[in-house]
Amino acid sequence: MNATTRMTSALTAPYRERLMQGAREVSFAQGERLFSEGQHADRFWVIRTGTVALDLHVPGRRPAIIETLGHGELLGWSWLYAPYTWQMGAEAVSPVRAYELDAETVRTLCRQDPVLGTAVALWVGRVLSRRLLAARTRLLDLYAPYGSGLPR
Questions:
Q1: Is the Cβ–Cβ distance between 73 and 47 less than 8 Å?
Q2: What is the mean predicted confidence (pLDDT) over 52-63?
Q3: Average pLDDT for 21-46
Q4: Cα 84 → chain centroid
Q5: CA–CA separation, 117 and 109 (whole Å)
Q6: pLDDT > 90: percent of the chain
Q7: Tally of CA atoms within 13 A in the half-sphere of 14 that contains its CB
Q8: DSSP bridge pairs for 26
Q9: How many other C-beta atoms are found inside a 10 Å radius of the C-beta of residue 2?
Q10: What are phi and psi of 32, to 5 degrees?
Q11: Per 3-state DSSP, what percentage of the chain is helix, strand, and coil (rounded to 5)?
Q12: Could you tell me whether strands 74-75 and 43-49 are parallel, antiparallel, or unpaired per DSSP bridges?
């Protein structure tokens, strides 16, 4: 993981504190499904402990694991962009403890404070960019005849 995708690097302390005021601590058991593609994205998490696998539905096959997330990483980006529908799925690989944040509350904070909104959008955008690259690479590894060699 790139350090700039962690909340602690992406947001200043005052903005992290504002976001975390509305956070609640949650836990998930190993094997528990946190969300599935197509469901409404109304929350997101910052992982404290444990690991979560991101996956994509592949017709006629088991879901393809795209990436595994751990401590300090953002879980979920679909909450920020309309139509607020999960684009991937997530399952706890091990017991997980996380901070859960309500999407509407955070979107409201971002609208009220455009500088915070820009910082959050840039943070989530960096995460999104890394996740899309990971998805592309993983799907090419699984299904392309010559693997995922990056474009030249």
A1: yes
A2: 86
A3: 96
A4: 13
A5: 7
A6: 57
A7: 3
A8: 98
A9: 10
A10: -75, 135
A11: 40, 25, 35
A12: antiparallel
Lookup result for tokens 């996956």: 55
Reported pTM: 0.83
| Order of all β-strands in the sheet with 89-92 | 33-35, 89-92, 52-56, 64-69
Q: CA-CA distance, 31 to 39, in Å (whole number)? A: 18
Report d(CA 75, CA 88) in Å as an integer: 11
**CA dihedral in degrees (94, 92, 46, 104; nearest 10)?**
-160
Report how far Cα 75 is from the mean position of its chain's Cα atoms: 3
Q: Which amino acid is at 35?
A: F
Residues paired with 24 in a beta bridge: 100
Residue 131 tokens, joined: 């996740």
| Angle between helix 103-112 and helix 114-143 axes, rounded to 10 deg | 130
Q: Which amino acid is at 150?
A: L
| Percent of residues, the chain, with pLDDT higher than 70 | 88
State yes or no: pLDDT of 152 exceeds 80. Answer: no
Question: Is 20 in contact with 99 (CB distance < 8 Å)?
Answer: yes
